[in-house]
Amino acid sequence: MESQAMIKDKPTFQGLTNNVSLYISKSHASSRINKTGSWRFARPVYENKTAPCSASCPAGNYIPKVVMHLSKENIHGAFRALIQENPFPATCGRVCFHTCESACNRGSQDQAVAFRCLERYIGDMAITENFPLDAKSLAAGNAGNIKVAILGAGPAGLSAAFFLTRLGFSCEIFESTDKAGGVMQWGIPSHRLPKSVLDHEIQRIVNMGIKIHYNHSLDAEFMTTAHHSFGAMFISPGLSVPLTMGIEGESHIHQGLQLLMDIQTKDMPLKQGRVAVIGGGNTAIDVARSLKRLGADPVIVYRRRKQDMPAFAQEIVDTEKEGIEIIELKSPVAVQKIDKGFILNLVSMAPVTEKGNDGRTRVMPVDNTPETMIFSEIYSGIGATLHDSWKADADAPESAIKLDHVDFHLKDIPFLYGGDCVNDVQSVTHAIASGKEAAIALSAYVDSGIDSVKKTVDICRLGAGKALSMEIYLQGERRLNSDHVVTDTEINLDYFTSTPRIEPGHIPLKTSVTSFKEVEKTFTREAAMAEALRCYQCGFCNECENCRIFCPEISITRQNGKKMIDLDYCKGCGVCSVECPRNAITMEEEK
Amino acid sequence: MKHVIEGSHAISEAVKLARVDVVSGYPITPQTHIIEAISEYCANGEMKAKFIPVESEHSAMAAVVGAASTGVRTFTATSSHGLALMHEMLHWAAGARLPIVLGEVNRALGPGWNIWMDQSDSLAQRDTGWIQLYCENGQEAMDTTLFAFRLAELVNLPVMVVIDAFFVSHTFEPVAIPEQEHVDDFLPPYEPRIALDPDNPFALFQMAPPNVYMEMRQSIHRAMEHTLDIYHEVENEFDAVFHRRYGMIEEINCENADIILVTTGSATSTARQVQMDMEKQGERFGILKIKTFRPFPGKAICNALQKAKKVAVLDRNFSFGSGGIFAQEVKGALQVLSQGPVVFNYIAGLGGRDITPDIISEVYLKTRDRDLPPCGSEWLGTSPRDEN
Amino acid sequence: MQTLNISDVDFAEPGNMSCPGCGASIAMNLALKALGQDTILVIPACCWAIIAGPYPMSSLKVPILHTAFPSAAVTASGVRAGLDMKGDTKTTVVAWAGDGGSFDIGIQSLSGAAERNDDIIFVCYDNEAYMNTGVQRSSSTPYGSRTTTTPGQGWKKTRKKNMIEIMAAHGVSYAATANIAYPEDLIRKFKKARELKGGTRFIHVYATCTTGWGAPSEYAVKIARLATRCNLFPLYEVEDGITYTLNEKGDTPVDAYLNLQGRFKHLSLEDKAGIQNQVDKDFAVLKNKLSVC
């Protein structure tokens, strides 16, 4: 449109121009001259905190970080974060009893995040796609190639080798059998842990340059001579001697552990008839479910109530689903052999109010008149104990430093005991905790002497609990995290709509009870991402940028990929802290 | 060439010739004809402008404030209650130093409703920072409107072109409508010193704290003083093109007068006739017409009046509790004289009442025949009425 | 949770004069991300008249024209007319007014601009009272609120004016509600409004004022989110005054919203139940409009 303002070619008078005083209210500066930071009473500080899952994980998995990477479809990143703390993701992703999920804050909104299955998904991806171990980011330091002898190639020994090697120790493992893996190898049936998965994860550790001596006798002679050749010993012999019940006719009872081992090593004949499995722990469950797969009709007999069973809850549920009966509150008192099998004499038990020394429910016989049941076979699944040859040795002298998962005896060289012989809970994950704690303790000892051991272990704690972090020991960013364990009320639930937990499901029951095929399926990629998105990532900044987006003061910016709070302008309103969905920003009072 | 047109349309024609870009308008008697004509020019393409038919006079001024802030030439028109409603934005326009031209048709304010001539509306806007130019007839309205754009854009102040309701606005008179090229010669395209521009962002008319507000107001004052300084030169430019000029004031026989009548607007025309008649009768009668009320040309007025014995100020307005507004201003201007003339103040013609030759004569005779004015102002032509 | 994807290009600057936790500041920051550099803002008397900076500062990187309280819309109309005469078609003219400058003193000029269908975006950032002057009630103040002019037992007994329906009734091409707690939705709406050139577009943005509402500053966004979750401030769009689109469905009882704010703390359980009842009815009316289309 032609306008007056656009016509500029007409002659005009030259005499008069607009040179009048014109002082008006027109800006000529940015509001940046106004340092509103001086108004502030409290300042926001980026402070990653400890997620309850991590704090409860004996292996100290950095779960929020793992899930963050996974949710951004960075599976390599997720694997790197996992392997930093745990050498057995695919194994733990199957057999771990997942305290992380019991501790999960999401449980109070709807259901816990299925982290165990996510861990398995990542672990399996690492196996099928052969992810490399990023030695550079994992390794740290050189402990002068001090040689460490590791006794027992179970989860504790392998973990110790994994962590010690990263810290610059030179490890040799001495194993009495012909296979590494310990209880993972012969104690956990294939329907829970396929051996190919385990073998891959063991091989990944061995490939770090660890020598394993198989079929090596770990006798007294070895113990007395080994310390001449090594700078330290890590001793994790495991529990190999089945417990006995001390009842009449006990010789008629088969050892469940032996059955499990036989299944791994021999062709087993099919079984039939009703078979009793005595016990309430994971061994009893594994034995019963294995017997089912061998064709028998197993029944679990347990002296306490079902809810008192030390076996993992999900395992109990799955066991019953497979049609295995659990008889509770019956205690065996005698076994008699008859023509067609065995008579098991049982007395009825009832719980009493006071608890036992171990904190578990106590039961007492209701009356002493036993009832009888007839079985074709009877198995014991009540657990195992340390072999006598280790007992005297492992008994801690007064000088020993008792850590949570390791006993540290300083003899002429350090002797560190770990794994089942030390842990109050016998699990793969606790064994990993032993391996990690031993590595940290030994490294601290080598660097700074015996007095630094406890102190160093304390520094590596997650949320001041028993879980330790190798990343913290290695001075990684995780050391900056606060010990505060995030609670469910500290999560901004506005960002998390209730969505049901996703689980990968099981193979059909018909297939599972007739074979040793793995029962549980793994996540699809989509399901894994969806489940990862359910995770609050408690206390862990996952770069969601809510703080930047909602900052009324444009005071949160990204510089060189890092978020910065410009305290020249931040008024301390606290919106960033509240709108952080996961409590990764703390308001600190100005002094 | 001269055309017989009404005073309102003289303004409308001038707005068209000034190539105004944005016009806003809201109807109010007796102003409506101005914007009617302009909207017609816009509709038929005679004028390439945006016409914004706003929903109130407040908005009429706000619209041109917005438009002028982008650096284009703007116009609106109003009257009476409309101007009163605009009051806030009059301050805004002046404080913003926007060269907006406003056609203002003097009209009384209610209640009771009164649509006729009265200067109270524009004079009540005395302190808003607007230049106020009062016109006597259609030709002057035309010329003053063109002049107003040039002046406004030279001093960054808004200008009110004031005409009398009906006596000028609705009266058809022969008016010389200049050629467009002559207007373009006189009125160059507007070159704003400040205009909104996303490529060069700044905030305009923002909060001004005490440490700067006073200086900003002083800047308006300086611009008003500057207006007095350059007014004559702008008239020279106008005269050079159109061969007419009006002056901030016009002196009619003031040199030889004992009594000078001070008038504004169309009443001046009536007074001219009476003055001629009186002069023939040997009376030493002069007239001072004030055209420029803001800035008030006090010095020029003082010079014009200082030789007279008596001054009679005819006010078509009233400041209740005080007196006629022009009288107050004239008295103020004469303060500098140690022995200045005596000032008589007469109030006449409020709310559309005629100021007849008889009233002018009465003013003259009453002034001549008394040595001193009565206390306060004297209301002429009023009669006692029944009260409720 | 899904993360928000919001540009980090800002047209606002730090150092502004807003109270800590200012919802109106958040609203502006987000809106300008959508509007971009080619924007002229017209701001009447309101909090933003101060937030934008007293002389000589500006807290925004786009031009601002400050205008008088009643005149946001028409001043914007004037700016638009001026730009049109200059041949500038790329610049978007946005009037940015508080609830007083939209619902009350500004409604005449807003209605005028909307009826003329002037080519502007009018934004009401709604903090539900005259906050800049110290929390006096406006016609946007909701039922139940205490303000300095509805104090004590004189708390506001009348309802909030339904501004978007008033604007939709003008038949404008686009009228929408938006909320600082829903940044992606807000930005989408501002982009849409920017693209619908040629007529008046109206966006009603919910902008918490924790100072005036008696709430901790850190709850600015939380409260705003609850307003929508409780259906007190439903997010929806109306095109040409006819086609309604609902963007969010709330399912939270109003107590969650009311209990966070001091301005409602005097309300009895019956009062709150009454508010819930009204909210449910209003939402039902809105849903009916959806089904009509």
From TrEMBL, chain A:
Any single Pfam family the record assigns to this protein: Pyr_redox_2
Organism taxonomic ancestry: Bacteria, Pseudomonadati, Thermodesulfobacteriota, Desulfobacteria, Desulfobacterales
GO MF annotation terms: iron-sulfur cluster binding; metal ion binding; oxidoreductase activity
Record organism: Desulfocicer vacuolatum DSM 3385
Protein name per Swiss-Prot or TrEMBL: NADPH-dependent glutamate synthase beta chain
Cited SUPFAM superfamilies: alpha-helical ferredoxin (SSF46548), Nucleotide-binding domain (SSF51971)
Keywords from the UniProt entry: Iron, Iron-sulfur, Metal-binding
Alphabetized PROSITE patterns for the sequence: 4FE4S_FER_1, 4FE4S_FER_2
Domain 4Fe-4S ferredoxin-type stretches: 561-590
Coiled-coil portions: none
PANTHER family per record: GLUTAMATE SYNTHASE [NADPH] SMALL CHAIN, GLUTAMATE SYNTHASE [NADPH] SMALL CHAIN-RELATED
Record bears the keyword Repressor: no
Keyword Ribonucleoprotein carried by entry: no
TrEMBL record, chain B:
CDD domains given in the database record: TPP_PYR_PFOR_IOR-alpha_like
Claim: Oxidoreductase is one of the keywords in the record: yes
Record domain Pyruvate:ferredoxin oxidoreductase core: where: 257-358
Superkingdom as given in the UniProt entry: Bacteria
Gene3D superfamilies listed in its UniProt record: 3.40.50.920, 3.40.50.970
Matches recorded under InterPro entries: PFOR_II (IPR033412), Pyruvate:ferred/Flavod_OxRd (IPR050722), Pyrv_Fd/Flavodoxin_OxRdtase_N (IPR002880), THDP-binding (IPR029061), Transketo_C/PFOR_II (IPR009014)
Database matches in Pfam families: PFOR_II, POR_N
One BP term from GO: response to oxidative stress
The entry's keywords: Oxidoreductase, Pyruvate
Annotated Pyruvate flavodoxin/ferredoxin oxidoreductase pyrimidine binding domain residues: 13-233
Sample GO molecular function, one term: oxidoreductase activity
Keyword Oxidoreductase belongs to the record: yes
Protein name: Pyruvate ferredoxin oxidoreductase alpha subunit/2-oxoisovalerate ferredoxin oxidoreductase alpha subunit
Automatic annotation (TrEMBL), chain C:
GO biological process: small molecule metabolic process
Gene3D superfamilies membership: 3.40.50.970
Compositionally biased residues, Polar residues: 136-152
Top-rank taxon: Bacteria
One of the record's GO molecular function terms: oxidoreductase activity
Thiamine pyrophosphate enzyme TPP-binding domain residues: 67-205
Classification via CDD domains: TPP_PFOR_porB_like
Sorted UniProt keywords: Oxidoreductase, Pyruvate
Region (Disordered): 136-156
InterPro entries referenced in this protein's UniProt entry, alphabetically: PorB-like, THDP-binding, TPP_enzyme_TPP-bd
PANTHER family documented for this protein: 2-OXOACID OXIDOREDUCTASE (FERREDOXIN), PYRUVATE SYNTHASE SUBUNIT PORB
Protein name: Pyruvate ferredoxin oxidoreductase beta subunit/2-oxoisovalerate ferredoxin oxidoreductase beta subunit
Organism: Desulfocicer vacuolatum DSM 3385
